[in-house]
Amino acid sequence: MNQENYLKEVEKHLNCGKARKKQIRRELEADICAASEQGEEWEETRKRMGDPAELAREFNENMGNTKRKMSRPKKILLICAAVAAVLAVLAAVLFWLLPKTYPISASSIFQEETVASEAEEIVELLNEKDYETLQEKSTDQMKTVMNEEYMEGAKAQVGGDWGEFQRFTSSISVEAVQQGKHFAITELTALYENRSVTYQISFDENMELAGIYMR
Amino acid sequence: MNAKYERQLKKGVFEILVLKLLSEGEKYGYELILELKERGGELFAVKEGTLYPILYRLEDDGLARSRWSRPEGREVSRKYYSITPKGKEELEELKELWKSFEKGVSGILEEEL
């Protein structure tokens, strides 16, 4: 190992501030030069000084670094563990926040047939513009939007003149859990004279209408 | 002999010895290493990793000071350490302390109770 690399190795293993490291390096350089002036070859000097990590350790011991700086691999491991812990907490929070869906047949709260037929009932009431009944069926939050103005606006957003309602063509229901609350969601497709419209209808645990989307 | 105990014992006295050597004149690191070995024998052979921290401590405590200088005709500058007035005072006190210490230790070690 040549002088440059040797000194680099020593510096690497020193546990002190940068300024001190530079100081030590300069002193060692001066010593090596002094030794060579006295006729000692680098190889001899190197042997006398010993393994660079050992030399650094001796410095560390004697400079009373009680706050032993952690080795790099350990530091990296610790940082990874900390990041993993933070991610785990975030994932848990997200998991709780985001809705999870389960097949409705497995639900202990909702009945598949009841949910499906209620959803159809909602759409039929919408077709008939029976907002009074729809209001009765809605949660307090839904009540604020379950009116003619809002809902007709929403229908217009879907676009076009739908024409007369023909029949339902498909219906799928799931149970969703979000933030500890359970919902039944039905995706119900209705065929009208001129087009199909797919509704997504949500009910809360009391089977009150909690949400409706259409596309 | 357990190297650790030997080291511990030496740890106490090297400061005093270095101060003594410095009181004789300005010296640089390598010079001190050679001198300690020459005047004290193998027992006082000390490595850079032990000597320099001592010098740094002495400097931090104001007992020694240092300067970089390039001696005539040499390639590389050297760091010269010298004793300060405070260091001289401290050295005198430590010499007294050592005398009492030595007496006490020998006394206890030689007692056959």
What does this structure look like?
The complex is a heterodimer of chains A (215) and B (113). Chain A is an alpha+beta fold and 215 residues long. Helices cover 53% and strands 20% of the residues of chain A. Chain A is built from nine helices and five strands; from the N terminus they run H-H-H-H-H-E-H-H-H-H-E-E-E-E. Chain A has helices at 3-13, 18-37, 42-49, 52-62, 72-97, 112-127, 131-137, 140-143, 148-158, and strands at residues 100-103, 165-178, 181-192, 196-203, 209-214. In chain A, strands 1-2-3-4-5 form a five-stranded antiparallel beta sheet. In chain A, strand 3 (181-192) and strand 4 form a beta hairpin. Chain B is 64% helix and 12% strand. Chain B has helices at 3-23, 29-40, 48-60, 85-110; strands at 27-28, 64-69, 78-83. Chain B has a three-stranded antiparallel beta sheet with strand order 1-3-2. The longest helix of chain B has 26 residues, at 85-110. The two termini of chain B are 25 Å apart. Chains A and B meet through helix 2 and helix 4 of A and helix 2 and helix 3 of B.
